[in-house]
Design brief:
By secondary structure, this protein is mainly alpha-helical. It folds into 3 domains: 43 residues, no CATH class; 47 residues; 26 residues, no CATH class. The chain contains 7 helices and 2 strands; from the N terminus they run ββααααααα. It has a two-stranded antiparallel ribbon. β1 and β2 form a beta hairpin. The N and C termini lie far apart (75 Å). About 4% of the residues have low confidence.
Amino acid sequence: MEEQEIKTKQCKKCGKELEISEYYFPKDKACIDGFRNVCKECKNGKFGISKSQKWTENDISILMENYPYMSNKEIVEKYLPTRTESKIGDYAIKILKLHKDEEYLKYRAWSKEQLDFLIDNYSFTEMSELVNLIGKIKL
């Protein structure tokens, strides 16, 4: 009797070579072999959060208050470490109909030139003068 060869694939995130099965990979009809290219362990993240994690009132409140003024990365790092940046964006835009305040975010961001100037001049320049020279206001 001939042994049946087990088909495997490499997870694109962690690099593990795993059996192509529903046990290791989520099903996905859009993929050639019918399974995603990222294993279930990586898909669930380091916190073991499942795809169906519910948004709590606290999560929604955090998004309502911070989404327009912070990057998704900052929200993940500061408030919602069990969420991904893309899930935050999807929920905020599609469900809560929130939008980024692009003008504020553009103003808030520092150019390389501004950062270099600040580094070079911080130790011997008054704060008010730095603010005027760089073109930022104290928020």
